[in-house]
TrEMBL record:
Keyword tags: ATP-binding, Cell membrane, Membrane, Nucleotide-binding, Translocase, Transport
SMART domains membership: AAA (SM00382)
InterPro entries named in the record: AAA+_ATPase, ABC_transporter-like_ATP-bd, ABC_transporter-like_CS, ABC_transporter_ATP-bind, P-loop_NTPase
Domain ABC transporter: 34-248
Protein name: ABC transporter ATP-binding protein
Pfam hit, one: ABC_tran
One MF annotation (Gene Ontology) recorded for this entry: ATP binding
Disordered, as annotated region: 1-31, 266-296
Domain of life, per lineage: Bacteria
Record field: compositional bias (Low complexity): 266-290
Length: 296
C-alpha cells in the first residue's frame, strides 16, 4: 500500500512547558508522529525491509544505525514518500522534510531561491531569508550554489527543509561528506535547531558517536528489522569524555560487530563535542571498521 498520512501534528518544543498534567499527576505522553507496522519492501524478490515495526514520538530525536545495505536509507525514503512500492502500514505527518548527504542545490538558482524550491504558491524572499538566518547563512542568500563551501551547502539544504515547518525531519547521513571540524559544527547546529523547533527527527548515520551525541533513542537495523534499541539518558549538552557516553558507544559498536577503539584520556582534561571530532563506525559486508578522527 502507499504511504498514508496522519492528521496535522501539534508540535511543542523539546523543552516544552510540562505544567499540563494528566489525572494521575504525570505529564501527557507525546503523540506518535510515525507509526510503521509490518512494513516490507522487496527488490527482485529479496526483502530489504522485512515486516518492520517502528514508532517515533512528537519531538523525539531518533538515530538509525546499521551496516551498509541493511535498509536504512530505503526506510527513510519510504517515510519521505519517495518509495511507495511497499506492503504494510506507514503513517507519517503531512508536513515532513528530508535532507540528504548531497545538498542537491539547483546550480542555476541563487541560494534563497533554492530554499523556496517546491513550496506551494509564491512565497516571498523574506521566508527564505528567515530560514537562512536560522542556519547562519543569511549573508549568502544571493550567492550561487557553486560558490558555497561544503558546510554552507549543507546548511542551505537544512534551510530548505526547515522552511517547510516540518513535524518530521528526515536526515539521510547529512554530514557524511563534511570534513571533521565542519561536521562537528553541523551536528551542533542540528541539535540546536531540533531543540528550538520541537519537531521529530530521524537521522540515518553510520557514525555511532554522532548517534549517541544527538539522539534520545538509537536503533540498530539488521536484516530488514529493528534488531536493537538503546535509549540515551544522558543530559544535554553531552560530553564524549563521560564514561557513560563511552559505555553506550562501546555497546552499540559491539552490536554492529565492530571492536571499539581504545582511547587515551589526559587526567583532568574534559573533551567536548566542540573540541573533539567524531569517532565513527562504518560497517560494510566486506569489512567492519571503526574510524577515530583526531582532536580538533
Amino acid at each position: 500500500m502507499a504511504t498514508d498520512v496522519h492528521r496535522p501534528v501539534t508540535r511543542t518544543s523539546h523543552r516544552a512547558d510540562t505544567t499540563a498534567r494528566q489525572a494521575d499527576g504525570t505529564p501527557p505522553a507525546p503523540a506518535t508522529v510515525v507509526r510503521v507496522d509490518g512494513l516490507t519492501r522487496a527488490f527482485d524478490g529479496r526483502a530489504v525491509i522485512d515486516r518492520l515495526h517502528l514508532d517515533v514520538r512528537a519531538g523525539e530525536f531518533v538515530a538509525l544505525l546499521g551496516r551498509s545495505g541493511c535498509g536504512k536509507s530505503t526506510l527513510l525514503r519510504i517515510l519521505a514518500g519517495l518509495d511507495r512500492d511497499i506492503e504494510g502500514t506507514v503513517l507519517v505527518p503531512r508536513r515532513k522534510a528530508v535532507a540528504f548527504q548531497s545538498p542537491r542545490l539547483m546550480p542555476w538558482k541563487r541560494v534563497w531561491r533554492n530554499v523556496l524550491l517546491g513550496l506551494p504558491g509564491k512565497p516571498e524572499r523574506a521566508v527564505a531569508k528567515r530560514a537562512l538566518e536560522e542556519v547562519g547563512l543569511n549573508h549568502r542568500a544571493h550567492a550561487w550554489p557553486k560558490t558555497l563551501s561544503g558546510g554552507e551547502a549543507q546548511r542551505a539544504s537544512l534551510a530548505r527543509a526547515l522552511v517547510r515547518e516540518p513535524d518530521l525531519l528526515l536526515l539521510d547521513e547529512p554530514f557524511g561528506a563534511l570534513d571533521a571540524l565542519t561536521r562537528v559544527k553541523a551536528q551542533h547546529l542540528v541539535d540546536e535547531l531540533w531543540q528550538r523547533r520541537g519537531c521529530a527527527v530521524l537521522l540515518v548515520t553510520h557514525d555511532v558517536e554522532e548517534a549517541v551525541l544527538l539522539a534520545d533513542r538509537v536503533l540498530v537495523m539488521d536484516e530488514g528489522v529493528i534488531a536493537h534499541e538503546q535509549r540515551i539518558g544522558l543530559p544535554r549538552p553531552r560530553d564524549i569524555a563521560d564514561p557513560r557516553f563511552a559505555a553506550l558507544r562501546t555497546g552499540l559498536l559491539e552490536r554492529l560487530g565492530v571492536e571499539a577503539p581504545a582511547t587515551a584520556a589526559t587526567p583532568g582534561a574534559t573533551a567536548t563535542p566542540a573540541a573533539t571530532a567524531t569517532a565513527a563506525a562504518s560497517a560494510t559486508p566486506a569489512a567492519d571498521t571503526a574510524r577515530s578522527l583526531p582532536a580538533a
